[in-house]
Design brief:
heterodimer; A: about 60% helix; elongated; B: 2 domains; 10 helices
Chain lengths: ~70, ~230
């Protein structure tokens, strides 16, 4: 078997595998997680919540890092 | 019946060894480890430095023990391994997510220390990622244990492991010297590069059983044992 046919077989297997997944469940859990993340950010106290969009400051690396 | 019992005993021993291995690699001062035991340190004061080697040895021995267990009673061993991996990996993800869900700000600080999003010009995604990712860990971990959708949850957890491996490799490659932040949140500050290495080793080991679970048929844990 040459490399091309192996690559095609792997690609075919991957395609069939992805088709076999229950995407409604996967995307459903993902959407549920996003909704809960929104609720959780509102639920926690102010000092522990973050802005939806943005980042945090990058702290200085201490000298004693191994 | 005799083969099933021997296979079960071997798998119990293998499970204990994996638990010790993961604890030695990731939680060096927990109740499951012995490289931090006083009696051992009295005999060999440098024993605590070899926790990763001891952990890896325990996991390699456990893998070796699974081979005769599988040969003795193939069907039983596969069912037992599926159960152990589902409970173990799912439980680990649930446990890992709790601290992060409780303190989104601290986790967002920790994610920012990886400096990964700025490199992709996606800096503004940092906080949203820190909010959503622990929820993914919790719910996909739970789904792996309590729902029949093992393929879907293992598929999601597999990609989470891939993202951890990329992030830790990135941190080590750029000499960021940050803590993993996998199971407990510290102050988000840089501490010890060794922890990132141990986390990377752990993730590289655990991605393989996850990949195997992603190819299993969808069954609840009860059905795993009931099906003929």
């Amino acid at each position: 078997m040459d490399m091309k046919s192996i690559a095609l077989k792997v690609l075919d297997y991957l395609k069939n595998y992805l088709k076999s997944l229950n995407w409604i469940v996967l995307l459903g859990i993902a959407a549920f997680c996003i909704a809960l993340a929104v609720i959780n950010n509102i639920r926690v106290e102010d000092s522990k919540s973050v802005d939806w969009i943005g980042s945090q400051e990058i702290l200085a690396k201490p000298d004693e890092v191994l | 019946m005799k083969n099933t019992i021997i296979s079960a005993v071997l798998l119990v021993v293998a499970s204990i060894l994996v638990a010790i291995g993961v604890a030695e690699i990731s939680f060096p001062e927990s109740f499951l480890t012995f490289t931090d035991q006083d009696w051992l340190i009295d005999i060999w004061p440098k024993a605590y430095r070899y926790n990763i080697q001891v952990g890896l040895a325990a996991i390699i021995i456990a893998t070796g023990i699974c081979v005769p267990a599988y040969r003795l009673q193939k069907d039983f061993a596969v069912r037992a391994l599926e159960t152990l991996f589902r409970v173990g990996i799912g439980g680990m993800f649930i446990f890992a997510s709790i601290y992060k869900i409780q303190d989104p700000h601290q986790f967002a600080v920790l994610v920012a220390q990886y400096q990964f999003f700025p490199a992709l010009h996606l800096e503004s995604v940092n906080n949203f990622f820190a909010l959503v990712y622990p929820q993914f860990e919790f719910w996909f971990g739970l789904a792996m244990i309590v729902t029949p959708f093992v393929r879907e949850s293992a598929f999601a957890i597999f990609w989470m492991f891939v993202s951890f491996i990329i992030a830790l490799t990135w941190a080590l490659g750029n000499d960021l010297g940050i803590t993993c932040g996998c199971f407990e949140l510290e102050d988000g500050d840089a501490h010890d590069k060794a922890e990132a290495w141990t986390s990377l080793i752990r993730d590289i080991i655990l991605i393989w059983p996850t990949l195997w679970l992603a190819t299993r048929k969808n069954h609840s844990l009860i059905k795993v044992w009931k099906r003929k």
